[in-house]
Amino acid sequence: MSDTSNKKIIFSGIQPTGIFTLGNYIGAISNWGRLQDEYSCIYSIVDMHAITVRQDPVKLRAHTLEAYALLLACGIDPEKSVAFIQSHVKTHAELNWVLSCSTQFGELSRMTQFKDKSQKHPDDINAGLFTYPVLMAADILAYNADLVPIGADQKQHLELARNVAQRFNGKYGEFFTVPEPYLPPVGARVMSLQDPVRKMSKSDTNPNAVIFILDEPDVIIRKFRKAVTDSSSEVRYADGKDGINNLMTVYSVVTGRSFGEIEAEFEGRGYGDFKTAVGEAVAEHLKPVRDNFKRLTADKAYLKECYTKGAEAAERISQKTVTKVYRKVGFVDKR
Ligand code: ATP
Ligand code: LTN
Hints:
Layout: E1 9-14, H1 22-34, E2 40-45, H2 47-50, H3 57-73, E3 82-85, H4 91-100, H5 105-109, H6 112-120, H7 127-141, E4 147-149, H8 155-172, E5 180-182, H9 217-225, H10 242-255, H11 259-265, H12 271-297, H13 300-329
The chain binds adenosine-5'-triphosphate (ATP) and L-tryptophanamide.
Residues 11-15, 46, 49, 136, 139-140, 148, 150, 154, 157 line the site of L-tryptophanamide.
C-alpha cells in the first residue's frame, strides 16, 4: 500500500482474545476484505488492548500469531493492505498519551464496555481498561483514517474517538481527520445462539453460544440445531423473536437472500429445517477460511515476513503523524 495514494483510508483492529467468531466475521472482518480495492486499508491485531483484561502471556503470544493468520485467512491480502501487530508499532502508545490529555474522565466513565468489563472482572478494574478507548482513538487517528469498519458494539468508542479528534483540533488547529464508522447494513450485531439478547462474543464461556470461524462443519450444524428460539414455529422476522431474527440475519448475510425470500423458502416448514439450513450455509461459507488457515499456519516464516513488513509500513505512516502532533503540542524537536 502506498501512503501517497488518493484513496480514502480505512483502519480497524481486532483483539487476539481467541478464535474469531461468526459475529466478528459478519460484523467486521468480512467487510475489511471487501474494502481493500477501493480504500487504503490498515488492519491491526490489537494485543495492547487485549491486556486490559488478564491474559496468560504464553497464550497471548500464541493467540496473537493465530489471530494474524486468521486475518489473512479471512481474505486480508498483505500485498494490498497494511496488516500488523499493534505492539510492534510504538507510535500507538505515544499518541495514546497525548490524546489522553484531550480526553475527559467523564466521557470515559460513560463507556458501556468499561461498565460491562468491570462487572465481569471486579478484581481487576485497571486504568488500562478505563482508558482503552483512548488507545483505540490513537490507533485510528495515527493514520488519519476516514472510515472505521466495526460492529455495532464499538460505535460508542468510535464516537469518543471523533470527540477526541475534534477537541484536539479545537485546541491546536485543524489536524486530525474525524473518522466515520462503517457498519454493515445487516449483521452489525450477531447474537449469542444460547441467549439471543446478548451479543455473540469470543470470550463467552458457553461454546454452544458461539460459532468460531474454524469450527468443523458438523460442529457448526450441531450448534445451530441447538440454538435457542421461541415456542412458535413460523420462520418470520418479528419483534420478540430474537432467536429467529438472529438466525435469519445470519442466513441472509451468508446466502445473500432477503428476509422476504427466506420467509417464502421456509413457509410451512418448521424451525428444525431452518436451523439445519442455516448451519449448512454457514459451514459452507466458512470453508475457504478454514482451508486458508490450515495452509497459512503451516508457513510460519511467511507469516513473520508479512507482519514484519506490515509493522514497518504502519510505523512509517504513523510516525509522520506523531512527529507533527509533538510539534503541535509544543514538544522540542529531537534534531
Ligand atoms: P471479546 O469477547 O474478547 O471482548 P469480541 O468477540 O467482542 O471479543 P472484539 O475483538 O472486541 O471481539 O471485536 C472485533 C470486531 O468484531 C469489532 O469491530 C466488533 O464490533 C466486532 N464484533 C464483535 N462481536 C460482534 C458481534 N456479535 N456481531 C457483530 N460484530 C461483532
Ligand atoms: N476496541 C475494538 C478493537 C479495536 C479497534 C481499534 C477497532 C482497537 N483499536 C481501532 C477499530 C479501530 C474492539 O473490537 N473491541
